[in-house]
């Protein structure tokens, strides 16, 4: 069993750990470094994994280290891991938005195998979507190892051109929040029209779930699925025409561009640091 350490035990680490354990990975093979005492307590209680305040202790025996800290924290954590990284030469997997492979190589060491990936929070229930990109030091066996870890979180796709990782972030890493926001808006609209909030939320959330399952399980084009809902001159057509008049495609394209741009900016901000 691969020994796996997470540096940072926040939202995304929790989602990945939850997904891994659900596929039968033994808790004893996972350790986490988390500075907050309450965070460590919760991780230990919820997952039965070993939790440490110090990164070095969590990573001590790891073959794979998942870097799950905020992008801004990333440049500051290599120092305490340096000796261990040179000695053990583990596979590093970064999940940080924006942070490029060349930056990770600069901070952690040019000779190390590094995978940059972008998962999302549905990993917690094994329904995540992850894009992965490897540097030249990653062996085929390590590539398979990274894929195996992220497969536990759901669907995986390798991305050859690293510059597209910011697009991946914009359409899958960040995107669960877009669907949550849409359900929030549907709920609010229904409540305004008089539907009880609990009923509105349940109907909107289940519809999101059902549409998602149809998209992923039917193998059909989203446009075909949409057309099947849309009776000529019916209610759906009225709603879609309203979306179109308000420029839904343009709104979405602008949001995706904003998220993509922010990924590039996050990396540039780190380059600008002394
Ligand atoms: N949330 C999401 O949906 C997704 C996030 N990501 C990426 O995952 C990474 C983590 O994001 P997220 O989980 O949301 O953030 P969180 O803030 O929830 O998690 C980061 C964790 O790292 C801890 N931490 C801070 N400093 C250090 C340190 N020096 N050493 C070890 N741990 C430290 C934080 O502790 P403390 O709270 O005490 O600061 C926190 O628990 C980010 O880089 C993000 O871009 C990628 C895909 C999706
Ligand atoms: O919002 C963010 O920056 C992180 C990356 C993708 C999802 N959450």
Automatic annotation (TrEMBL):
Cellular localisation: Cytoplasm
Record-level GO BP terms: L-proline biosynthetic process
Binding sites annotated in the UniProt record for NADP(+): 7-12, 68-71
UniProt catalytic activity: L-proline + NAD(+) = (S)-1-pyrroline-5-carboxylate + NADH + 2 H(+); L-proline + NADP(+) = (S)-1-pyrroline-5-carboxylate + NADPH + 2 H(+)
Residues noted as binding NADPH in the record, renumbered to the chain: 55
Domain Pyrroline-5-carboxylate reductase catalytic N-terminal: 3-98
GO molecular function: pyrroline-5-carboxylate reductase activity
Keywords associated with the record: Amino-acid biosynthesis, Cytoplasm, NADP, Oxidoreductase, Proline biosynthesis
EC number: 1.5.1.2
UniProt-listed Pfam families: F420_oxidored (PF03807), P5CR_dimer (PF14748)
Its biological purpose: Catalyzes the reduction of 1-pyrroline-5-carboxylate (PCA) to L-proline.
The protein, known as: Pyrroline-5-carboxylate reductase
Organism annotation: Rhodanobacter lindaniclasticus
Lineage: Bacteria, Pseudomonadati, Pseudomonadota, Gammaproteobacteria, Lysobacterales
